[in-house]
Amino acid sequence: MKVPFLRRWIMWAAVRWGALAKADGRRGWLADSWRVLLYTVLALPIVAPAAVVILLTLPVFALVELLAWLPLLANQRIRAARGQPAKQVNPPSLRVKT
């Protein structure tokens, strides 16, 4: 698959940033750091606004999900109390993976 030039290098820079989290990923990082920083600076005006919107929206979505989950949980408990089959209802969670 042919990935456009700038997108490919932005993805590469993101992977290099992620490599800092692992000891073996840090090997050779300093040699690449100038390119990582260059592509990060180029990508920030494009990526940062979308990231901010997503981070602000996540708690709102978590609240909506919680409000939708509560009646499902009540229904599950009522059905279980009556001896009727009830599907498991997983609780919502707000997790941001880094």
Write up what this structure looks like:
This protein has about 100 residues and is mainly alpha-helical. The protein has one domain (about 5-80). The protein is built from 2 helices and no strands. It has helices at about 5-20, 30-80. Helix 1 crosses helix 2. It is elongated and about 65 Å long. The two termini are about 25 Å apart.
What can be said about this structure in brief?
It is built from 2 helices and no strands.
Helix content: 55-70%
The CA-CA distance between the termini, in Å, is 27 Å
Number of domains: 1
SS content category: mainly alpha
- The helix/strand order is HH
Number of helices: 2
Average pLDDT, all residues: 90
Overall geometric form:
elongated
Number of strands: 0
What descriptors fit this protein?
single chain, 98 residues, mainly alpha, 2 helices
What's the helix and strand layout?
Layout: H1 5-19, H2 29-81
Helix pairs in contact: 1-2
